[in-house]
Amino acid sequence: MPNNLIKKQWAKEVAKHLVGKQIRSVRYMTNQEVKDASWYHAAIVIELDDKTLLYPMADDEGNDAGALGTNNNELQVIPVI
């Protein structure tokens, strides 16, 4: 399947789960969450109103926490800790 079709398919799937949701809290992972994930660093955690948790990972396999880039000049990167 061509890359542009894969992107469209995934965007549609993700949108079903995220569009219209509201952010309820923002925090960094607890030490226990980092340990449970077998990671070395803590990622930012964004909790939505349906209890969905979003957190950046270093790769698709979840090998460690990941930074999150933004287009906000005052907050260009949300770092791992």
List the helices and strands and how they pair.
Elements: H1 3-18, E1 23-28, H2 31-36, E2 44-48, E3 53-54, E4 68-72, E5 75-78
Antiparallel strand pairs: 1-2, 2-3, 4-5
Task: Summarize this entry quickly.
This protein has 81 residues and is α+β, with helices and mostly antiparallel strands. It is 27% helix and 27% strand.
- Give the H and E element order: HEHEEEE
Kindly report the average pLDDT value.
96
Which spans of ≥5 residues are poorly predicted at pLDDT below 50? none
Q: Give the beta-strand count.
A: 5
User: What fraction strand?
Assistant: 25-35%
What overall geometry do the principal axes of the alpha carbons give? globular
The rounded Rg comes to 14 Å
Class of secondary structure makeup = alpha+beta
How many angstroms does the end-to-end distance come to?
A: 37 Å
> Roughly how much helix do the residues carry, as a percent range?
25-40%
Indicate how many domains the architecture comprises: 1
Number of separate helices: 2
Question: Order of strands in the sheet with the most strands?
Answer: 1-2-3
Main sheet makeup:
3 strands, antiparallel
